[in-house]
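Posting for a labmate who doesn't have an account.
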Amino acid sequence: MTSAAVIPRSVAGLLSGKLSRRCYLGYTAALAAVSVVSLLIGLVLGRVNLANSSMLYLFAVMATAVAFGRGPAVFASVVAFLVFDWFFVEPVHQFTVTDPEEWVSLVFFLLTATVTGQLAAGQRQRALEAQQRGREAVVLYDVVRLMSEAEFETARFVFTLPVGGALAGTPGAVAVSGA
């Protein structure tokens, strides 16, 4: 059994370098969104004391989830967690947290961001599936309409045959179509 058969497709794609351009774009957008929110938090924290400024990262996670799906959204939440811990939690520029309340806050932020990203990505997936079902319904309607027109044309052709003319009351008569 090969290792690609055991490893999920997304991980196998990552390892082989065969990820799509849209996939890279999603992860890059997640990094950019977290960077923008980090800059805003850095600017705001210098002037105003916000109690839960980490929750501003939820905007980045939600935007990433809606635009690119689950993977980039989870990536954005983990990166936001690490960036917030590194830049804004005492002691700054270390991944150690001295205050136990900060640990609880960071863990709840990570859980909230991950769940929010999952929910938004699920909504995005359902919207895409609804669009696909709508396109399929239009195609099916067109097929049924074409089939019913073809059946009508076949019935009109049969009616124009001599037997059909006999059924109409005039043997051998050819029915004239209204078209």
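Reply:
Got it, the structure tokens are right above this. Residues 144 and 164 are 26 Å apart (CA to CA).
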